[in-house]
Input
Amino acid sequence: MTFNIKKYGIIVIIAILFAVLSFSIVDVINENPKYEDYCVTGEYFGRFDLNTNNCPKITEPSSEEIKSCSDAKGTIEYNYDGNGCAVSYKCEKCNNLYDEAVEQHGFIRFIITSIFGVIAVLIGLYIKTKDDIIEWIYSGFLVGGILSILFGTVSYFGDMGRFVKPIILLVEIGLIILIALKTIKNK
Output
């Protein structure tokens, strides 16, 4: 058995490009959330008068306000004037909203890459041809589908529920076993 660099090169390149294509389609369907769309980033005021003794006193948030803000998954953030003095505060929930958007985007990425991955695996497994080059292309789709599923799962794994993780992993292991059995059966 000789090592055919053309064959494996085609398979690897198609696999990598297919996995990248899956992720780029996700961004077309659902753009990656940007922090600036949820939270206003602070302005640079130049030099501050760091002597806070010259600042007017503001009413500090009460323990009830702090608890209420914390329960709403927010944080107390102060607004500053041009001298660096705190002039007011508010319960800022933008980080929570941003985190929820990132998690939702991750879920959509997981679903889309899994769907494209399964389609590619099915193409690679079940479409047969006698032409070796076309067979290499289908093998590239098979490997690219596996990579798409793998990377999609890994990128969302931390946000999956604890009961969902083992189910997803069992389904994916089953898919790999099916691929292995089908490949051995064809030989």
Q: What stands out?
A: The helical segments are 5-29, 63-71, 94-126, 132-156, 164-186. The beta strands are 75-80, 86-92. Confidence is low (pLDDT under 50) at residues 44-48. The first helix runs from residue 5 to 29.
